Amino acid sequence: METIERVQKHKEALTAEYSEAIPGLTALARSMVRELDPLDDLEFLRVRSAKHEIMVAPREW
């Protein structure tokens, strides 16, 4: 039971780290898309590594 709790806490910590990094990464990607075509916008961002994959669909509210 202790192992399961430890794994769950680790996932939450990783999620918190990702959620802090995503806005900056999204802003950089959006900037690059607009640099290529000023009339275009970022629709979807996908970042993959060997162990993880993050998919972001940014929207303006």
UniProtKB/TrEMBL annotation:
Pfam families: Robl_LC7. It comes from the Eukaryota. Residues 14-58 form the Roadblock/LAMTOR2 domain. Belongs to the GAMAD family. This is Roadblock/LAMTOR2 domain-containing protein. It comes from Monoraphidium neglectum.
